[in-house]
Amino acid sequence: MGSRNVPIDMINLRLILVSGKTKEFLFETSISAAAVAQHVFDSWPSEWTEEAVSRADILRLIYHGRFLHSNVTLGALNLPCGKTTVMHLVPRENLPEPNSQDPRKLGKNGSNSCCSNCCTIL
C-alpha cells in the first residue's frame, strides 16, 4: 500500500499488526495515543477481521521500540507533518513496567552504574 497525499497539517500513521497487516490513518498532531487506538477500534479495517479485539483500551502503539502512554500526543513525539510515520499496533492489557534489574542494563558488579570499579591498563 503506497502513501497517499498527506495534508501538510496532518500525520499519516501506517499501523502494522503482529500479523504483518498494515493500514494507514490520518490524524491531527494534537491527538493522543489513546484517541488513535479508539479511532482505529471504531473503524476497524475489514482486512483485520482475524485480529479484531474486544475493546479499544487494550490497543497499544509502539514507536521506535517503545510503548506509548495513552496521554502522549503525536505532536509531542515531533512526528513530521505531511509525512507517513510507521508504528506497531498490538493488543496488550498493561504497559510493561520499567525493569531496573534488567541484566542488559546492569554492570559487571550488578549495579546500575555504567562503569565498574576497576581500571584496565593496556
Descriptive account of the structure:
The protein is mostly beta strands. Helix content is 8%, strand content 24%. It is built from 1 helix and 5 strands, in the order ββαβββ. The protein has one helix spanning 33-42, and strands at 10-16, 22-28, 59-63, 66-67, 84-91. It has a 5-stranded mixed sheet, with helices on one face. A hairpin with a 2-residue loop joins β3 (59-63) and β4. The longest helix is centred in the N-terminal third of the chain and has 10 residues, at 33-42. The mean pLDDT is 84.
Question: What attributes characterize this protein structure?
Answer:
122 residues, mainly beta, 5-stranded mixed β-sheet, 5 strands
